[in-house]
């Protein structure tokens, strides 16, 4: 399946907060990697060879769990109408995760 077809199929899956199971199942079937974290609604994939790359997307009820899976110790609370957050997690000099929270 071409990338454009996969993207179209993905955006056409209903993804309502607290009801992400169908979306999660589609992504698990499309990504040829084992997830580093999965709780049935949140998925985390990490490329571990070469330069690490992780991309996450989620709703207000799934992002905090994804950040915890990345060992972020900051407490993140989001409401259902928080749509303007960008979270960036980088490794600090000591190897521990550092969370940057940006708003647009």
Itemize the secondary structure elements and their pairings.
Blueprint: H1 3-11, H2 21-30, E1 37-38, E2 43-44, H3 63-69, E3 85-91, E4 97-103
Structure description:
The chain has helices spanning 3-11, 21-30, 63-69; strands at 37-38, 43-44, 85-91, 97-103. The chain is α+β, with helices and mostly antiparallel strands and 104 residues long. It has one domain (3-103). The strands form two sheets. It has a two-stranded antiparallel sheet with strand order 1-2. A two-stranded antiparallel ribbon has the order 3-4.
Kindly list the characteristics that best describe this protein:
about 100 residues, alpha+beta, two-stranded antiparallel sheet, 3 helices, globular
Give a quick rundown of the structure:
The protein has helices at residues 3-11, 21-30, 63-69; strands at residues 37-38, 43-44, 85-91, 97-103.
Specify Rg, calculated over alpha carbons. 14 Å
The global form is globular
Order of H and E elements: HHEEHEE
Main sheet overview:
2 strands, antiparallel
Task: Give me the number of helical elements.
Answer: 3
Question: Any idea how many domains?
Answer: 1
Query: Class by helix and strand content?
Result: alpha+beta
Integer average pLDDT: 79
Number of strands: 4
Give the termini separation: 34 Å
Helicity, in percent?
25-40%
